[in-house]
Amino acid sequence: MSSTADVAQNLASSSRRDQPPLTTIEAAVLASSGTILGATATHAPTNTTDTTAATASAAASHDASGRQPPTAAAGAAELTSTKMSLYGALKRFPDFPIPGINFIDILPLFQDPNIHRTLLRALELQVLQFGADVAGAGNAALAKPDVIVGLDARGFLFGPSLALQLNSSFVPVRKRGKMPGPCVEAAYEKEYGTDYFQMQEGAVKPGQKVLVVDDIIATGGSAAAAGSLVKQLGGDLIGYLFILEIPFLKGRDKLDGVPTVTLLETDD
Ligand SMILES: O=P(O)(O)OC[C@H]1O[C@H](OP(=O)(O)OP(=O)(O)O)[C@H](O)[C@@H]1O
Ligand SMILES: Nc1ncnc2[nH]cnc12
């Protein structure tokens, strides 16, 4: 396996259409995304794609003299601060919207343009890493999503921006009764209630590769319902991407082993 420095270097120098070159930190985010941004390894079922495991050891690798290569060390420090700035922006509201729920508010991530930018870049890099893990380093493009599906409403805050960055379509999943024309529908339970999701027929074409994105996976009910709608439309559900996971609620268990990546996690 390449060292983090090698991976970061390759990524930093890789040319991507219409994209500025990756900075050291961006490359390092991708090179060791699991270590810093994704705590997915601990909780990932064995049959899910773990973007952490393959890179965590690289991030921790040392050179022959027993020291971390400077790029990796610098990258790790920057990554720690990246994660801390994203995580530190989250706010908690006990007993909202009902007693017993510790509500984690992701809206502050969008208040500061620097944090907003960092978030979008980290998500984009996480998708690229996801592609490399699913299809192999040289074939990451094979796992590039044709469609980003974002969930009503917080998945709309970053789904379209991410889709644009990836040159993918954006398609919404909405709560029942919000969209015109024929729709497919799925009922689901979430951490604090029951709801119905819909997608417009034809919004995803049969065989298109679809990545479902949302802010938070709690019990997984919302994400699983979205996945079932994608499949009803004939889409190829290649994965899920979340900003934040609440692992003790075991949402991943509802996702049928579909590859799932998260940037951050919290157990409170
Ligand atoms: O994993 P789960 O238990 O299903 O919970 C996660 C879902 O709950 C929240 O959405 P909510 O339904 O509150 O809608 P909103 O985005 O419109 O606030 C959140 O944005 C996720 O979509
Ligand atoms: N605890 C929580 N905080 C914010 N959004 C949520 N959606 C489901 N559970 C949530």
UniProtKB/TrEMBL annotation:
GO terms for cellular component: cytoplasm. It catalyses: AMP + diphosphate = 5-phospho-alpha-D-ribose 1-diphosphate + adenine. The keyword Glycosyltransferase applies. Residues 1-22, 41-74 are annotated as: Disordered. Residues 1-14 have a biased composition (Polar residues). This is adenine phosphoribosyltransferase. It is found in: Cytoplasm.
